[in-house]
Amino acid sequence: MFREDTMKKLALSLAAFVLSTGAAMADPLEGDWVTTRDDNGNFGLIRVATCGQYLCGTLMRSFDSSGSEWASPNNGRQIIFETSNDGGGNYSGQVYSPDRDRTYNSRLVLTGDTLSVSGCVLGICRNGGTWQRQ
Question: Where are the domains of the chain?
Answer without folding.
Answer: 26-133
